[in-house]
Every structure is written in structure tokens, then in C-alpha cells.
Amino acid sequence: MPRLPIGTKTPELAMNNTTRETLADVRLPRITVPPHPAKPDLTPAAKEALKERIAALLRQRDAVLVAHYYTDGDLQDLAEATGGCVADSLEMARFAAAHPAQTLVVAGVRFMGETSKILNNEKQVLMPAPEATCSLDEGCPIGLFSDFCDRHPDHTVVVYANTSAEVKARSHWVVTSGIALAVVRHLAEKGEKILWGPDQHLGRYVQRLTGVEMLLWPGCCVVHEEFKAAGLARMRALHPQAAVLVHPESPADVVALADVVGSTTALIQAVRNLPNREFIVATDAGIFNKMRQVAPDKILLDAPTAGEGGTCESCAHCPWMEMNSLETLARSLATGSGAIEVAPELAARARIPIQRMLDFAATLKK
Ligand code: 13P
Ligand code: SF4
């Protein structure tokens, strides 16, 4: 998808009339991608002992572990084995909102812990890696985003869950990749124009399928941005029977090559349900843990990252998700470190658009 023509006077108003989208002309902060953290080399016996310790600490604290599909496989398995869940970001929010435990332990990135705290302000929310951010969240500072919203008061503000509590509080709707299309279709039926942030690729994908007029914030995910269409097309030619699965945070030319585009849950379901034996997967490699469990006899291939001679900073593994480990989880549970706080007044404002999404999701489930 080519960059859109940008005007000079009020640049963000230069809409591409073919696609009915406008990419906001804002200068985003530079995002530093941390190196992948070193993984401690535990013996199987030491790992089992650590898992047992964590399970005991969860019981002592009346805590439940909620993990994202991109986290370490041991952590995902432990979440399920101890009565918690491993899920996409929509289901993590739903699970946390409904669970009676006094402490919610969120293994993922910061916005996921914040969402749990916003929905359960009276509960304790712990994160093994509270410093784990997300390039989408970092690329959408509240001051810049709020100014942009102020300049377009006739637009409904829809933000991806990968944002700060402040940005959520400034929005009308929060969405995750699992529900973005349905929400925007619903708004389009009411004739609303959308201001979308922060992921331009997901926004563009939603825009293309709904045809609604959209102003796109120019953020992106440093992990999905690395998938390259040329390499993927070559790989597909080598594996003509494989189904190509793509998360919609990937660039439009990568999405265009997909057989299935969807949230992490949708991609896992595709591996389970499609008749293909081979799959080329363009999303974070952490997802392979669940994919192997649901379809042990299928062949899963990583979609290529980085272009010709290019560097690859994340290489299909989110460096922030990787900050979650059995060790950091045990430390957080033992000491109470990594507690997430969201001021009650801010949480009350941010809860409104999140709850709107959850209520809407409930109507779709019926
Ligand atoms: P899902 O909502 O599909 O789990 O995606 C969250 C995310 O951060 C993907 O990069
Ligand atoms: Fe954010 Fe991308 Fe990491 Fe998901 S994979 S948490 S969108 S940086």
C-alpha cells in the first residue's frame, strides 16, 4: 500500500479518495527495541520445582494466572494447569473481568495488565514484567494523540487495546484484533467516521473490509512490521499446499498473501480446523506452543522476516513478551513486585470504552 498523499495546510485531512483513508502526518517518538532477554538454562528438574513453587504461591495469594499466546510456552502451560487461561488480548480481558480470584497475575505486556486493573480496580494485579511495553503503546503518547482527536471532533475515536490507560480514556471504543472488524462495521452502519489508532496496518485492513472513512494513526508493531511480502511469496511457492496465516498487524502486502487473517485465536483455530497439513505463520513465534498442542501432526513454518540483506530487530518474537519467564513470575508472586496501579479516576474513564467492547462482544456471542 503506497504512502498517502499528504497535504500541506492541515496535512492529516488529505484523504486518499480511492481508499477513503488518511494516514495522520504526525511525528512519532523514536522507539528503542530492547535486545531479546537471555534465557536461564534450567534443568528439567529445576524447571518442575519452579513450576510447583509458582503453583503453591498462586494458591497462597488466591491468584489466577492469565497469559498471552506470545509468552513463553512453560508459562502458558502453567496458566492452564493452575486454572488460569492462555488467550488473545480480548479473552484475557474477559477472563480477568469475570474471575473471582483476589489477585490477577498477567503474563503479557503492560497494556494487558493495565486493562485487567482498569476492569478490576479493587483487585491486586501483578505482572512478572511490568516494564514490558509495546511499540504501539509507545508510539501513541497521550498528548499527541489527544491533540489529533481534538482536531477531528466529528470522528468516533476507536483505539486498539495496545494503548495506555490515558489513550483508552480519550477514546469512544477500545477494540482488539479479535473484534475490530465487527465494531467498525457496527459503527459504519450508523454512518460514523472513524479516527483509528495506533496500528496503521490493522486500521488499513479494517478500512479495506468495511469501506468506512478512516483517519489512521501511523503506529506499527515492531514484530509484525518485519514480515516481508517478497520472502513470503517465495516461501509460498516452495510450499504450494501450505495455508498462509497472517496477523492483521502485518503490512498490507503481507496481509494480501494470506489465506487467513485474524487474531491469535483465529490463527490457532485455522491450524486446528483447516484440512492443510502445512502452515506458514506470520505472527509472533510464541503462538506455536498452542498451535502444536491443538494440531500435533501439522507442520508449522515461520514466515520470513526482514528484507533482502536487511536486519531484523525482533525476528518474529516480541522482546517485551519475552521478559515474562518462570523466574520473573515466581519473583512477582513471592514479593508482590510488579503491582499495576491505575488511578481510580482514570480507570473509571478508561473502563467505559473497554466495557463497551465487552458488552458488544457479548451480543455477538449470543
Ligand atoms: P491478539 O489480540 O490477537 O492476541 O493480539 C495482541 C497483540 O499484541 C498482537 O501483537
Ligand atoms: Fe506490541 Fe507487537 Fe509485541 Fe504485540 S507483538 S505486544 S503489538 S510489540
Features:
Rossmann fold; alpha/beta; single chain; four-stranded parallel beta sheet; binds iron/sulfur cluster; five-stranded parallel beta sheet; binds 1,3-dihydroxyacetonephosphate; 366 residues
Write up what this structure looks like.
The protein is an alpha/beta fold. Among the domains are: 44-132 and 321-342, NadA-like (Rossmann fold), CATH 3.40.50.10800; 224-302, Rossmann fold, CATH 3.40.50. The chain is built from 15 helices and 13 strands. It has a five-stranded parallel beta sheet with strand order 1-9-8-6-7. Helix 9 links the parallel strand 8 (194-197) and strand 9 (214-216). Helix 3 (89-98) packs parallel to helix 4 (110-119). The radius of gyration is 20 Å and the shape is globular. Residues 88-90, 162, 176-178, 221, 249, 263-264 line the site of 1,3-dihydroxyacetonephosphate.
Strand order of the largest sheet: 1-9-8-6-7
Note the gap between the termini: 37 Å
Helix content: 40-55%
Give the class-level CATH name of the domain at 44-132 and 321-342: Alpha Beta
> If you average the pLDDT, what whole number results?
92
Number of helices: 15
Strand content: 5-15%
Shape: globular
> Can you identify the CATH superfamily of the domain at 44-132 and 321-342?
NadA-like
Rounded Rg: 20 Å
Give the low-pLDDT segments.
1-12
Which structural class do the helices and strands define? alpha/beta
Please give the number of β-strands: 13
Assign the CATH topology of the domain at 44-132 and 321-342. Rossmann fold
> How many strands, what sense, and barrel or not for the largest sheet?
5 strands, parallel
